Amino acid sequence: MNQIRGKGLHSGRDCSLTLMRADGPVSIGDRSSAVPIAELAVVRTDLGVTVKSSAWSIDTVEHLLAAFGGLGVRRGVQAIVEGGEVPLADGGARVFCDAISALAPPRDPSTLMVARDGEVAVGESRYVFRPANTPSLRVTVEFGARRIGRQEARWDGTGTSFAEGIAWARTFGFRSQAEALAAAGRARGADAGSVMILDEDGNVEAPGRAAREGEFARHKLLDLVGDLYLAGGPPRGEILAERPGHTATRAAIARAVEAGILTRASS
Q1: Which of the ends of the chain has fewer CB neighbours closer than 10 A, N or C?
Q2: Which fold does the domain 112-264 belong to in CATH?
Q3: pLDDT tens sequence across 67-107
Q4: One of 10, 63, 219, 246 is an active-site residue; which one?
Q5: What is the CATH number of domain 2-102?
Q6: Could you tell me if 243 and 126 are in contact, meaning their C-beta atoms sit under 8 angstroms apart?
């Protein structure tokens, strides 16, 4: 059993995550009950991802789900969250990856697969799908901030490359957004040690560490892995995502399934 304590990014409250070995598919919940990932209801995707069951609601699950998805862990672990929100931890998914890996759970391929070439556009976001035997993701982002501009990140579908090349990328936000976030009751626990708080040019404000190479695109790829995991992926196949976001990705997955671009394999 491994426990991670900290503050919630959005609530600012003390919260904890306990990871333990358990039979069956990966599940998440609180002390009262846990629910398999496939049975979760998604109730918010605008500023992070919130999921719920009939008994509880848990906020900011995306980085934890990204760790499960990046490592290919689909069974053998239960995640118990206290405080209503997954702890911010390192602002990415590396802490979660390490805690999950220490439990030595089995790793399995996804049954979700890209069945045919296809493209889905959701607002300014675009997703291109191509069949392949293993997961492969490429993300491109573009910001008007001078120090960010256009960035690209890739993932070859392996747990090692996710843990070493993607999981450490921190979440971020612009100082200019602070007032609107506060008015929405969000980002109350933003910590400069774990969140890249940016000025208008895209510089990380002190005392935060400067962004590493491609960190903004890598974090968007991290988020994409978490969103795809929530849908049963990341799928076997190639996905190119331009300007992805939680809400857009969820809509794109639904449209791709409806169009037969994404399907569920028998094994």
Answers
A1: C
A2: lpxc deacetylase, domain 1 (3.30.1700)
A3: 999 999 999 999 999 999 999 999 999 999 999 999 999 99
A4: 246
A5: 3.30.230.20
A6: yes
